[in-house]
Write a structure and sequence with these properties.
Blueprint (H helix, E strand, L loop, with lengths): L10 E4 L2 E4 L4 H17 L15 E4 L2 E4 L3 E3 L1 H8 L7 H13 L7 H9 L12 H15 L13 E7 L3 E10 L2 E11 L9 H15 L1 H4 L5 E5 L4 H6 L8 H9 L5 E5 L6 H8 L13 H9 L2 H13 L5 H13 L1 H12 L13 H4 L5 E4 L2 E4 L2 E3 L2 H11 L6 H9 L2 E2 L3 H10 L2 H6 L20 E9 L2 E8 L5 E6 L4 H15 L4 E4 L3 H4 L1 H10 L2 E4 L9 H14 L4 H10 L9 H6 L21 H23 L12 E4 L8 E11 L2 E6 L2 E6 L3 E3 L21 E2 L27 E2 L5 E2 L8
């Protein structure tokens, strides 16, 4: 019959039963005529008494079908209602088979039959008693009130609603009919003893997968349908997360969902009434009739063996530990009260509210949807949750190879986890002595510009240079860039002071003289000279010539001039040439007039003229801002946080390979210059050469000497601004007594620094 009527519209055959259905009388007559003609042409005769035409309701295969939907055949229901008490498992299994046939109509059948289906378990003694009698009677009542199911329509929005309880899972297939969602089919079943040990998210995942597979004949081929669940953590696992980021057992289940085109959505439990009731009233399939065996599970697993095993092997390969080590972690997890409690909640379900869990578990609660149990281990995704006693060891293993904070975190991200692991890794890396010593040099700080003075030779910079075996004093004015070069027969303080006196006699005594920390400038003679001539002597940071940039640039210009055939003529040209920042020559700014050179010029050009200082300052400021912007961009600068007295730090000069020489901050000379104390003594360093350390300071509070490069004088760099952020000073050691540093000269004479430089 199926062969004869193959291709006929609106015609269904089941062996010799033929069902022809239509939406109207006219269509029905056409469908009926076409089908009957094919039957006659095939040489068959129909029994008139067995044919029914134009019926609004029919009975077919144990179902009653009409315009409203499908409901169970009353004859099947009566057969169950007439059943009496059963005397063995065989009779019970046969009767439950009939009930299961009608299970699609009965969302609550399984919960009612739970006492009965328990008798089907393997090795369960037969004991039909009062609970079973009451349960079977209740099931008969449900059959008499079975609902009518809607027809499945491919064009209507489709939803699968699934839920899981502690002992069962259930689902319902719904479709939109007008403004209401009507059921198409129900399903439910009890969980096996193995499945009852799943984490709650795994049970919910199992419910979703099983419901979709139960309604597979409706769902396969749909362009899209919705999967409803009341377990919010399951939504990202189905919709967005990569498979290897999900709990291990869920990975195997979610692979079975890949053939469906679905979108998971969240519905609160109170709106998921039917699926929730089904999960709490599971139906034990008659074909089970006993405890699920390993053979049963093996049969199911075989269907997906290759895909599942390949994926699981890939996941487990990311755990570079032996089975023995995993067993050790599992045993220690049982001894850790917090991890043990998390294992319990994962297996039996977490409380609905975070306030219902112990305070120690609140850090775990936010990730409750990601936990699963694997071989006795608590696992978050593919990361093993480590008990407290092993965390120190794991931190050491994570930091093997002395990787940085980011790489250590990435390494842990695929292996182990516990609350606060990222912060623990950060502290471990910061406290690593080897990592501290091998860190690269600190980046350059943003360029600090010097404000243009108000008048010529108000502030000057001086330095020494060697050229072709001869020594020279180079001095430059900050305001005009007027350059002075003086030959030094000897590099002594006495000779340097004499040359400076000669220059000051021509231009006047400056307010500030900036130098490096050369011995000629840090000697007692030079300090006495500064005091007698009433100028302030300021020094740059030792081993950091960039902090005296004006003098360093002047030395470069001086060497170019000295390399000329006639250095004096070259020096004259330098003084008479306008500079880029101001657009005015050094001679005009320093002397108020242009200088006569070998170039012809009008006499009127040599007449002294007044220079507009405000315009000069504006041009100088703009040029310095451009230079600062270019410098900061070219060097990728960043501001280094300031230090405070008492900070423990490590030192590294630019030519050194590693950070070492632990020291302690004594005072801040300027925003980027600090006086420090180490085992070598007391001296000054630039902030770029100092790095904060997590170690305790090993430097004892003992009298110390100053380096030859540290005079203890005022700094070129400006003091910190009042609004700049500062950390609170370190608490002083109660047993520490202030000591006065002692300086010994090369002749052995003992001197003390001025009191203004003491702490």
């Amino acid at each position: 019959m199926e062969t004869i009527l193959k291709g006929e519209e609106n015609t269904i055959c089941f062996f010799d039963d033929v069902l022809i259905y239509s939406n109207s009388d006219d269509e029905h007559e056409q469908h009926l005529e076409s089908s009957m003609r094919k039957i006659v042409e095939a040489g068959h005769m129909l029994n008139r008494e067995k044919c029914k035409f134009k019926q609004s309701e029919i009975e077919l295969l144990g179902h009653v079908i009409n315009a409203e939907g499908i409901r169970p055949d009353k004859k099947k229901v009566d057969a169950i209602l007439n059943m009496s008490v059963f005397i063995n498992v065989t009779e019970l299994r046969r009767s439950l088979g009939i009930m299961n046939f009608l299970g699609r109509f009965l969302p609550n059948l399984s919960s009612v039959l739970k006492p009965v289906t328990e008798l089907l378990e393997k090795d369960k003694a037969w004991n039909w008693g009062q609970p079973q009698t009451l349960a079977f009677s209740k099931a008969k009542e449900l059959l008499t009130a079975a609902p009518t199911l809607a027809y499945f329509d491919l064009t209507k929005p489709t939803t699968v609603s699934a839920d899981a309880s502690s002992y069962g899972i259930g689902g319902v297939l719904l479709q939109q009919h007008g403004e209401k969602m009507k059921p198409v089919a129900f399903c439910s079943r009890t969980l096996t003893s193995t499945e009852q040990g799943y984490a709650q998210i795994e049970k919910e995942c199992l419910a979703a997968v099983w419901a979709c597979e139960k309604f597979e004949r409706y769902l396969i081929g749909l362009e899209k349908f919705t999967l409803e669940t009341d377990h919010k953590p399951l939504i990202p696992l189905i919709n967005t997360k990569d498979l290897d980021e999900t709990p291990i057992r869920c990975q195997r289940m979610l692979m079975r969902l890949m053939r469906f085109s679905l979108t998971a959505s969240y519905s609160p439990g109170k709106t998921l009434v039917v699926a929730d009731a089904l999960s709490r009233s599971p139906q034990s399939p008659v074909q089970e009739g006993r405890e699920e065996t390993s053979e049963d599970r093996a049969d199911v697993a075989t269907l997906l063996a290759e895909d599942v095993e390949a994926h699981v092997d890939a996941v487990q390969s990311s755990w570079p530990v032996s089975d023995k080590r995993l067993d050790e972690i599992a045993a220690l997890s049982q001894q850790d009260p917090v991890v043990k409690a998390a294992l319990h909640y994962t297996a039996n379900g977490w409380p609905r509210y975070v306030t219902d869990v112990e305070p120690a578990l609140k850090d775990y609660y936010a990730f409750r949807g990601e936990f699963s149990i694997h071989r006795g281990l608590l696992v978050r995704g593919v990361r093993i949750v480590i008990p407290q006693v092993l965390r120190e060891e794991m931190l050491n293993r994570i930091h093997e190879g002395h990787l940085g904070i980011t790489k250590c975190r990435e390494r842990a991200k695929s292996t182990v986890w516990w609350p606060g692991i990222n912060e623990n890794i950060k502290q471990r890396v910061l406290a690593c002595q080897h990592c501290e010593e091998k860190q690269p040099s600190q980046r350059s700080e943003p360029l600090m510009t010097t404000e243009l003075p108000d008048r010529p030779f108000q502030m000057v910079a001086a330095d020494l240079c060697d050229f072709k075996g001869q020594s020279y004093l180079v001095l430059i004015d900050y305001y005009s860039r007027y350059l002075e070069i003086a030959h030094l027969p000897r590099e002594t303080s006495e000779v340097v002071i004499g040359r400076m006196k000669n220059i000051f006699a021509h231009h006047g005594i400056p307010d500030v003289v900036v130098t490096d920390n050369g011995s000629q400038f840090t000697s007692t003679e030079f300090q006495n000279f500064a005091a007698a001539w009433k100028f302030t002597h300021s020094t740059s940071s030792p081993y950091f010539p960039q902090s005296n940039g004006e003098a360093e640039r002047a030395v470069k210009e001086a060497k170019k001039i000295l390399a000329q055939e006639d250095p004096f003529l070259a020096l004259l040209s330098h003084r008479a040439t306008p500079t880029t920042p101001t657009g005015t020559s050094p001679a005009e700014l320093a002397l108020g007039r242009k200088m006569r050179t070998t170039l012809p010029t009008l006499a009127s050009n040599l007449i002294p003229k007044t220079v507009r200082r405000d315009a000069i300052k504006a041009r100088d400021e703009q040029a310095k801002l451009r230079n600062k912007s270019d410098h900061d961009r070219r060097h990728g600068t960043e501001t280094i946080p300031p230090l405070i007295p008492g900070d423990t730090l490590l030192q590294k000069l630019d030519h050194e390979k590693s950070w070492g020489k632990p020291a302690t901050v004594l005072r801040q000379c300027a925003p980027r210059s600090y006086e420090i104390r180490s085992e070598r003594g007391q001296y000054r360093r630039n902030r770029r050469h100092l790095r904060l350390s997590s170690r305790q300071s090993p430097v004892p509070e003992t009298p110390s000497r100053r380096d030859a490069d540290q005079p203890g004088l005022s700094s070129l760099e400006p003091p910190p601004t009042p609004g700049s952020p500062r950390r609170p000073p370190a608490a002083p050691n109660p047993g520490e007594q202030p000591s006065t540093p002692v300086i010994k000269t090369r002749s052995g004479r003992t001197v003390r620094p001025p009191s203004r430089f003491e702490e």
